[in-house]
Each structure stands twice: as structure tokens, then as C-alpha cells.
Amino acid sequence: MRSWGRHTLNLYARMQRTPQGTLSALGRYTLGGFHQLSGYRSEQLDGNSVVFTRLTWYRRAEHVPVFTRGFFVGATLEAGNAWARWSDVRADGLRSGMSAFLGADTGLGPVYFGLTYAPRGSTVLYLFVGRP
């Protein structure tokens, strides 16, 4: 994470794999949902191997609205996918997603209102409370 004044840029990446050759509940990893391959349903993509990366930018507002400790606007660019076997993982198999959001740091935790899109997924409006 790197911040410049009220602007913050954050790069997140994860790679997970299990040696199992077939899908099972044990060792299954998922992607989909707000900030986890936006534009796909929560846990829509699953497999024994997952590759995912997200670049997030947000800008904290100068004036804090009532009932919040902070207010921000931001966007994400995301890429990743899930495969049954590690040997199937390929760069040309990556899916993309993105989001634009408004957020607030409240007494209930972070609250996000966002628009997500994925070329091979869908366009979705989100209201999300808690950590994505």
C-alpha cells in the first residue's frame, strides 16, 4: 500500500493450490463477489487452484460527513480465475473484473456502495457492509 496525501494505491495478490486432482469440498478455493473478481457472483468460480490480483485506488474526502470517521471514493481493477488442476493455470485463462465505489468508515464497520462489471460476468450494484 502506498499513499500520497488523500490518495491511496493498494496491490493485492494471492495464489492458492491443493494437490488434489479433482474438485472436492476439501481444498476448494473460490472467487467472485465485491473485490474478489467483481462482476461475478460470490463464489461463482471455484477450483483447487486460484490465481488472483487486485489493484485498488481510493481517495479520502477532505470533509468527513456526519456519522462517519471517513468517506472515500475509489475503483478496482481485478484479474484471476480458478482451475480444477494447477497444470491448467494459464495467463490466457484469466478473467477480469472492475468496480467503482463510494465508501464510509462507520461505527458498524466499512460500508461500500459500488458498481461492478466483468466482461464475461455481469454488471451489478452492491451495498456491502464489512471488509470485502
Give structural attributes.
single chain; 132 residues; mainly beta; Porin; 7-stranded antiparallel β-sheet; two-stranded antiparallel sheet; 56% strand
What does this protein structure show overall?
- With 132 residues, the chain is mainly β.
- The chain has a single domain (2-129), classed as Porin.
- Helices cover 0% and strands 56% of the residues.
- The protein has no helices and nine strands.
- The chain has strands at residues 2-4, 7-17, 29-31, 45-47, 49-60, 70-83, 95-106, 109-117, 123-129.
- The strands form two sheets. The chain has a seven-stranded antiparallel β-sheet with strand order 1-2-5-6-7-8-9, with no helix packed on it. A two-stranded antiparallel sheet has the order 3-4.
- A hairpin with a 2-residue loop joins strand 1 (2-4) and strand 2.
- The two termini are 16 Å apart.
So, CATH architecture? Answer: Beta Barrel
Largest sheet report:
7 strands, antiparallel
| Terminal residue distance | 16 Å
User: What fraction, in percent, of the residue positions are helical?
Assistant: under 10%
Q: Please state the overall shape, judged from the principal axes of the Cα atoms.
A: elongated
Strand residue content:
over 45%
Fourth CATH level, the homologous superfamily: membrane protein fhac: a member of the omp85/tpsb transporter family
Q: Order the strands across the largest sheet as they lie in space.
A: 1-2-5-6-7-8-9
Given helix and strand content, the structural type is mainly beta
What is the string of helix and strand elements? Answer: EEEEEEEEE
Tell me the radius of gyration: 16 Å
Report the count of strand segments.
9
| CATH C-level class | Mainly Beta
Count of distinct structural domains: 1
Number of helices: 0
Overall residue-averaged pLDDT value: 90
